[in-house]
Amino acid sequence: xxxxxxxxxxNPPIDDGKDGATNPDGGDGNSDGPIGNPDGGDxxxSDGSTAVDVVVRDDxxxxxxxxxxxxxxxxxxxxxHKVGAGCDASVDAGNIDCDDTDPLRNPGMLxxxxxxxxxxxxxxxxxxxxxxxxxxxxxxxxxxxxxCTGGPDFNQPVKCGELGNLYACQQEVLNCVPxxxxxxxxxxxx
Length: 190
Hints:
By secondary structure, this protein is mostly beta strands. The protein is 0% helix and 22% strand. It has a 3-stranded mixed beta sheet with strand order 1-2-3, with no helix packed on it. A two-stranded antiparallel sheet has the order 4-5. A hairpin with a 2-residue loop joins strand 4 and strand 5. It is elongated and about 65 Å long. 34% of the residues are buried.
């Protein structure tokens, strides 16, 4: 008996690292929606297996000079107050701004950020946890050695905002194994 199997490699849009993200819907990712809202100002990035919403830094989300707004309870105007300077009374415990100089870093950040964090580990939503947007272990699947699916994803840990190599699954005899794929993407975090 002869068993034959075919395996096709996916050809997804891949971030080349030059503009930070691919945008499969063709839009520029900008709108007038609030920061961190998947329905406005953000991009959905898809690599063929994983799709996450990634926010784009622009003039509206630029970092703020803290020295110029020491008396303000909301220096970065993201709607979340810092602790101290008489601002405590207006802040409930779950809505404290962990970085009042960066409008992308606040408890309401619903989407992922693919830029390299400065002065923090990638916890953009102030919950004291780093959530990574893309899997760091590609999962290959086949049924009885026929068909091979999985990836492209990372196959090793990648730090927030850094580029990593992509791996996709490829049929090798009766095994479905991760193989280095042509391309890289940035790890997005929140």
